[in-house]
Amino acid sequence: MSNDRLQGLLESLRQRGQRVTTARRALLSALDQAADHCSADDLATEVARLHPEIHRATIYRNLETLRRLEVVEHTHLGHGPAVYHLADQIHQHLVCEKCASVTEVPPTALKGLEQTLKHDYGFTIKSRHFAIVGLCAACTSPDQAAS
Fold first, then answer.
1. 39, 70 in Cβ contact below 8 A?
2. 92-145, superfamily in CATH?
3. How many CA atoms lie within 13 A of 103 on its CB side?
4. C-beta of residue 79 within 8 angstroms of C-beta of residue 116
5. Percentages helix, strand, coil for the chain, rounded to the nearest 5?
6. CATH class belonging to 3-86
7. Is 44 exposed, middle or buried (0-12, 13-18, 19+ CB in 10 A)?
């Protein structure tokens, strides 16, 4: 994580009256450095690797606090555990039910659906909280259909 970005996130916490702890700093750093979506267990393991004194329960509590403060978001990518990412990395998820690939798309990808649901049903979705499950382009190609 760039030092400026980390300092900005930590300052945001301070401005909200939140304490900046070693656990929170380590958790935000682990989220930023992750190459993929991470479960709470993945994050607890990574933080423990660098900071064995930080208890797993502390990581789980901090994830919930950071989610409530909208610093971190969690998403359900299917039947597995929720995964987490920093809230400033806003995107939607498309999950292939055949090959399990996850494609990140911009939030505008569901704008039409959001508008239709709002207009027709008065319903506002929190679309970043869930993934859309289907088949990716590779799994729907004619070559894949034969297999």
1. no
2. Ferric-uptake regulator, C-terminal dimerisarion domain (3.30.1490.190)
3. 15
4. no
5. 50, 15, 30
6. mainly alpha
7. buried
| DSSP, residue by residue, 57-68 | HHHHHHHHHHHH
Which of 71, 73, 59 minimizes the C-alpha distance to 23? 59
Amino acid at 58: T
Please state, in angstroms and as integers, the Cα–Cα distance from residue 92 to each residue in 13, 22, 110, 111, 126, following that order. 25, 30, 8, 11, 10
Residuewise pLDDT in 10s, the chain (147 residues):
567 877 888 888 999 999 999 999 999 999 988 878 899 999 999 999 999 999 999 999 999 999 999 899 888 887 778 899 888 778 888 999 999 888 989 888 888 999 999 999 999 987 777 788 999 999 997 765 555
**CB-CB contact of 50 with 105 (8 Å):** no
Query: Within 13 A of 52's CA, how many CA atoms are on the CB side?
Result: 0
